[in-house]
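Researcher: We're teaching a course module on how sequence relates to structure. For the next exercise, students receive a sequence and then see the predicted structure as tokens, so they can try to spot secondary structure elements on their own. Here is the exercise chain.
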Amino acid sequence: MDKKLLALAVSAAMVVPAAATAGVKLYGKAQVEYNIEDRDGQDSVQSVDDDGVRSRLGVKFSEKLGGGLTAFGKFEWAMDPADAGSSGAPNDGQNFRARDAYVGLKSSWGSLAAGSFHAPYKTAGGVKWDPWTATHLQARRAGGMSGGSGGISGTNGFIRNAIYYTSPKVNGFKVQFAIMPDETNSGANNDGDDGDNDYSMAVQYKNGPWHAIFAHNRNNVASGDDETLSKVGLRYKSGPWTVAGQYEVIDDADTADGSRTLGTSSSQGNGYQVCQGCDADIMWLNGQYRVGNNIFTLSWGETDVDVASASDYDFTYWAAGIIHKFSKKTRIFAGYTETDGDSNDPEVGGQVDRDAWTVGIRQDF
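Model: And here is the predicted structure for the students to work with:
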């Protein structure tokens, strides 16, 4: 091991216990999968990776200021244990890439922070409800949930240069609103002065076993109509059962914001996007049943795309598998997923269908 890295590790081990007493918490996740994937017109591919970049390292901090006011913040970085930043690795450059990074104040009136965040649209339902998020089996960009990896769009990526308000919970309701007064995030296409003030918002309601959500995004685009996304969702948990579903509507999609080509291999193993300027309806359903430390789960989704100047097309997604939790921090999982695409897709280029088997392990700390 490099002497400088060894010295840094020893120093961190000595500092963290003292820092924890001062309102600082070091945390992280480590995940690796073995995956076998097949696509139309391509040879079967095996991989050992954290292709969804679930692995991360972060630090949270807070300080009570008196009068019910608390300062708080967070810095988080992504990494792939299987690549570890090796030269030429598929996810080279992913390691220690910035994720959330913000600082703010909170009190009885809620919280207000500035920096980089998961958008409210992303975390209301969506990736929080999908048990396969950030694995090869996930629904997003596979036909079950919207994509988007930059700017403000969809259930992937982060919003940058943002101000984020979260209300206190009142009678089960919570409101989240994030605005980017001067959006400069790479990939976002703004229309001069009209490109300012892109926003994402969500309203969530929890009461006993029920959890309902509504979310909406607006992304100003350089040419054409603004891209908007709206969704509603409902989840019910009772005993060993969990059932969830959500419905998304996309108007005037901006694929440049998602920076992916439809139906082709991409980060996280899939790239089933909505074509630029097109509209779409996306449905996702999931059921889970728990027996002891085992969770059996089945997901289904469909993306129907309306193309103004060509034939419409659709993607159908499903995934099934099992998650075994040794504890709250350690789990193993295995499953199968498949996405079937309509050949009328004007941008797929023949690479429509995809299926994948995966088995993995994850440890939180």
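Model: If you want an answer key for the exercise: Residues 1-16, 87-92, 256-270 have pLDDT under 50 and may be disordered. The longest helix spans residues 3-20.
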